[in-house]
Amino acid sequence: SNNMFGDILTDLGAALQDAGDTDGAIAELERARALDPGNASILRDLGVAYGVRGNPQQALEIFEQALVLAPDDAQLLGNISAAHGLLGNVAKAAEFGARADAAKRGPTASR
Description:
By secondary structure, this protein is mainly α. It has helices at 2-18, 22-35, 40-52, 56-69, 74-86, 90-105. Helices cover 78% and strands 0% of the residues.
């Protein structure tokens, strides 16, 4: 199935990222996204790779696509906060940082 290949490409992308081959990671994660476009984890990893490469605006756009799929993902919310911080959007960075903290505490936290 496409999802299995997407998982394999995601793992390969993560391994390349760990090895410092950010461009290779992006290439594999873009292939994984093409096979499994509704996978928030792939989008999150791809956004991180773009951020590492020094493209925080592109990272943010990808994170926002993932957020539609996984609105309570604490790691993703933290990534969005970091991207906003890199772009100088201090208020948005703080807003998403607070949302990430709330998501880490879980659904029992008052909102």
